[in-house]
Design goal:
Shape: elongated
Helix content: 55-70%
Number of domains: 1
Number of strands: 0
Order of helices and strands: HHHH
Structural class: mainly alpha
Number of helices: 4
Radius of gyration: 13 Å
Largest sheet: none
Distance between the termini: 9 Å
């Protein structure tokens, strides 16, 4: 990846839009991908129970954070 604003980062952000953490996985950041995926989808799953419906908000926040993180990533190369 060339850095922030590169085509690779745009593609990663689009991937994270559909599945949280997928953009980080595309960038080769496996640990970040697992963390974003789990944080987002555990909250969404709790919200889907109906009892903990308020957990959708933290899930949404983590999802948006995943997208922004993928778009702004700067490699150390």
């Amino acid at each position: 990846m060339s850095g922030q604003g590169s085509g690779g980062n745009v593609l990663a952000a689009i991937c994270s839009f559909f599945v949280a953490g997928l953009g980080q996985l595309v960038q080769g950041r496996v640990l970040a991908a697992i963390i974003f995926f789990l944080l987002t989808w555990v909250n969404y799953a709790l919200a889907a129970t109906g009892i903990l419906f308020f957990m959708a908000l933290p899930g949404f926040i983590f999802h948006v954070w995943s997208i922004i993180d993928a778009a702004r990533y700067k490699s150390s190369d």
